[in-house]
Amino acid sequence: MSYDKVKQANHLIVGTKQATRMVELGKAEEVIIAKDADPRITTKMVNLCKKMGVKVTYVDSMKMLGKACGIEVGAAMAAVVNEG
Predict the structure, then answer these.
(1) Under 8 Å between Cβ of 31 and 23
(2) For the Ribosomal protein eL8/eL30/eS12/Gadd45 domain, which residue ranges apply (predicted)?
């Protein structure tokens, strides 16, 4: 998984609450999680993704993920969402 893929995603939902919602609604095709994010947050998401059959990809840091998502702060996770 390269950060380029994050930048090229049509529709990216950044943040734990929104990403969780997209997975629950079956709209997420992939979730990107920062390895240095709080495990209490990421463990729930990984389990939810397993249950829902959503691919999980890890990236090195929250700072890099945030930057790839076009925000100034770090991001624990982001969801790539299907359009339509």
Answers:
(1) yes
(2) 5-84
Contact yes or no for 6/66 (Cβ under 8 A): no
| Cα–Cα distance measured from residue 29 to residue 84, given in angstroms and rounded to the nearest whole number | 12
14 residue type, one letter: V
Q: What is the pTM of this model?
A: 0.87
Task: Return d(Cα 35, Cα 33) in angstroms, integer.
Answer: 6
Domain 3-81 grouped into CATH 3.30.1330.30: yes
Helix/strand/coil (H, E, C) string of the chain?
CCHHHHHHCCCEEECHHHHHHHHHCCCEEEEEEECCCCHHHHHHHHHHHHHHCCEEEEECCHHHHHHHCCCCCCCCEEEEECCC
What pLDDT score does 5 carry?
A: 63
Q: Which residue has the tokens 């994010």?
A: 37
